[in-house]
Design a protein that fits this description.
By secondary structure, the chain is an alpha/beta fold. It folds into 2 domains: 173 residues, P-loop containing nucleotide triphosphate hydrolases (Rossmann fold, 3-Layer(aba) Sandwich); 101 residues, no CATH class. It has 9 helices and 11 strands. The protein has a 5-stranded parallel sheet, with helices on both faces. The protein has a 4-stranded antiparallel sheet with strand order 6-7-8-9. Strands 10-11 form a two-stranded antiparallel ribbon. Helix 2 crosses helix 3 and helix 3 packs antiparallel against helix 4. It holds the Pfam family AAA_28.
């Protein structure tokens, strides 16, 4: 199933806050394109701004959304703060259409469930990048929600509750749909002083009964924002091999691209590693002791 998962809705509804909470829990995210575009245009004295040239702004938003889509290719869930349909929806908001709509719908699919953050006046605030009033935020949400549904997505509205509850609900809904956001025996490491932030080990076929399980080793390249395969390793009696590996600390050589296990105990709790979540530590500990 497609692992690109969209959070959408009107502006100022709490999407970005929820995305930050997902990142804090160790999930891959893609920030909203619109705000970055506005900051860049203001900094460079450009006109591709909602209050100057809305058409140019929409075109840039669509281009950046396409780029984000391409870099969001991952075997793990990637949560997007808006997607390509949002750019098309913005065009409709300003009374325009794009001839690319059918092509975009066909060639840039996302996870079939979209999480809709409804307008929430109690938390709505304007700033230098969000200049529309609350009434326009409501209209934006209505147009975007309608577009996603017409494109065949199922929109689930996230209730107006604290952010931790919103994210808990979102993840639980995904699990119930059979897209569990816990990725099996995945080991996450932060690596200091390198352009590589995380290295992950994922069992490609968790349901395999074959003693030779194939494990894919992936690293997260901070510069490109993409999970890249490091190598493929065929392991006899796979779980035991992973157990041995899990008892070591993985080191990724920034210059040589090599790795090694130094035989020390797996750091099940290391200060400053927020992505090594409590649930993952518990899972790994149970796995090592099994």
């Amino acid at each position: 199933m497609n692992t690109r998962i969209i959070l959408t809705g009107g502006p100022g509804a709490g999407k970005t806050t929820a995305l930050a909470e997902l990142a804090r829990r160790g999930h891959l995210i893609r920030p909203e394109a619109g705000r970055d575009i506005i900051r860049e245009e203001v900094r460079n004295g450009g006109d591709a701004l909602p209050w100057k040239d809305a058409t140019a702004y929409a075109a840039r938003m669509l281009d950046v959304s396409k780029q984000d889509y391409q870099t969001g290719d991952s075997p793990f869930p990637v949560f997007f703060d808006r997607g390509i349909p949002d750019a098309v929806g913005y065009l409709r908001l300003i009374g325009q259409e794009t001839a690319q709509a059918a092509e975009l719908r066909e060639n840039y699919p996302y996870h079939p469930t979209v999480f809709l953050f409804p307008p929430w006046e109690a938390i709505y605030e304007n700033d230098t990048e969000r200049t529309q009033d609350f009434a326009e935020a409501v209209r934006t949400c209505d147009i975007i929600s309608d577009l996603y549904q017409k494109w065949g997505y199922s929109c689930i509205e996230i209730p107006k509750v604290p952010v931790t509850e919103r994210v808990d609900l979102l993840l639980e809904l995904l699990r119930k749909q059979g897209k569990d956001t816990d990725t099996g025996f995945t080991i996450l490491f932060f690596l200091e002083g390198s352009n590589v932030d995380i290295l992950e080990i994922k069992r490609n076929n968790p349901k395999s009964t074959d003693k030779k399980d194939i494990y894919q080793w992936l690293f997260f390249d901070r510069e490109s924002g993409v999970l890249r395969p490091l190598s493929f390793v065929s392991m006899e009696a796979g779980p035991e091999q992973v157990r041995v590996f899990s008892e070591g600390v993985l080191r990724f050589g920034n210059q040589t691209g090599s790795w090694e296990s130094d035989g020390r105990s797996l750091p099940l709790h290391v200060p400053g590693l927020p992505r090594l979540s409590i649930s993952l530590r518990t899972q790994l500990k149970a796995f090592l002791l099994s």
